[in-house]
Amino acid sequence: MGLKKRTKVSAEFSMSSLTDIIFLLLIFFMLTSSLVIPNALNLKLPGKSNSNKPPSQEQPNIINVSSSGKYTWNGASVSLRDIEMRVKELKKQGRKKVTVILSPHDNAPNQTVVAIMDVAYRWGIDAILTDPK
Length: 133
Description:
Radius of gyration: 29 Å
Number of strands: 6
Shape: elongated
CATH architecture of the domain at 43-48 and 59-129: 2-Layer Sandwich
CATH class of the domain at 43-48 and 59-129: Alpha Beta
Number of helices: 3
Order of helices and strands: HEEEEHEHE
């Protein structure tokens, strides 16, 4: 009786399990990414306005940040605590829309600019960031 032994090894494998795993990972990342809500600052960049409203007659609140990280509010030197107190006063005056213009120096530290944006976010006011000087 002449039985032949099969000595040839097959190098093939099933791709169906691999595609199942990839499909499940894809679904997982799609679902989890839709649940993530970014915590962003309310940042408005200057741009062209299409509205025909006349400009407001009140003085704009301009916050300058120097290259050394010092703050000025409409030309007067202030600290971060003073800025927060002034923003609090503006908010308590009962105006519907409070806006500050943030004008950083080109070499201003990022944390000083973000600190102002954080104050604006906490008090619910609009902060317009201008191009660095």
